[in-house]
Design brief:
The chain is α/β, with parallel strands linked by helices. 40% of the residues lie in helices and 18% in strands. Helix 9 links the parallel strand 9 and strand 10. Keywords: Hydrolase.
């Protein structure tokens, strides 16, 4: 399945940037632009993952492998040849690890932005809380403003509400509705976070690196130690939470530009 996507840069080093759960490719646009300016030899592909943004809906039973195959197919369809660098935030990082197991010779390196290869307890996931509130929201609303107010009335912060209403589309009747299938996303959420992906980090020849937010809980110290024992360097941005590419972009970019 070929996904909705856009590109940044015109270099020869193919790099895929993948967003997190309930996001879209444009969430990483600022990172792609800054990275492209620093390393013009790169060419970035930013897709909307399957079931997200304006990409096709999730098929029944979709899992990490489904998403990884769709990104791989999209990259090839867009002319990304040879081994590709995969960089993923949260869900995007887990998709990248799955891709490295499916296509080991075609994934040059995986860069994880605040995510672990371990199964992630749902009670640690901010995305789980957001998803629960999203499932309670109405299917439609007269306007984005009113849907935003409904979400905030359920306890969502203004910032998260603003982020979620980016996933609304206009209806023929003049109101708005959710662009994605909420039930399918809820089912995907459980599948992708239950999977153990350590094989992608600990297999011979694996090239993986990770950066975590010091205020986030997605990469615990015991996982950091295990990754480093496997040859996967891990850095910490003390001032950042889970959204390292938003909260600490200059520091993240400096780290990305270093050889690891």
């Amino acid at each position: 399945m070929v996904l909705e996507s856009f590109q940044v840069g015109e270099g020869e080093v193919p790099t895929v940037l993948l967003h997190g759960f309930l996001g879209s490719g444009r969430n990483l646009r600022s990172l792609a632009v800054a990275w492209s300016e620093a390393e013009p030899q790169r060419r970035f592909l930013l897709p909307d993952l399957t079931g997200h943004g304006t990409s096709p809906a999730l098929p029944p039973g979709a899992d990490l492998d489904t998403l990884a195959r769709d990104v791989h197919e999209t990259a090839r369809a867009k002319g990304f040849t040879g081994p590709v660098d995969w960089v993923g935030h949260s869900l995007g990082g887990r998709v990248s690890l799955a891709a490295s197991l499916l296509f080991p010779s075609e994934v040059a390196r995986v860069t994880l932005l605040d995510i672990t290869p371990s199964p992630v307890p749902v009670n640690l996931l901010e995305s789980g809380m957001v998803l629960n509130l999203l499932m309670q929201a109405p299917d439609t609303a007269p306007s984005r403003k009113e849907m935003r107010a409904d979400l905030m009335g359920r306890g969502l912060s203004a910032g998260l509400a603003d982020w979620l209403v980016m996933n609304l589309e206009s209806t023929p009747e003049g109101g708005v509705r959710w662009r994605f299938g909420r039930q399918a996303l809820a089912e995907l959420h459980g599948r992708v976070n239950q999977r153990d992906l350590w094989a992608a980090v600990e297999r011979p020849g694996a090239k993986v690196r990770c950066i975590r937010g010091g205020r986030a809980r997605y990469v615990p110290d015991e996982d950091l130690a295990r990754m480093e024992r496997a040859g996967c360097p891990v850095a910490t941005l003390p001032e950042a939470g889970h959204f390292v590419h938003v909260e600490a972009l200059p520091a993240l970019l400096q780290w990305l530009l270093q050889a690891h």
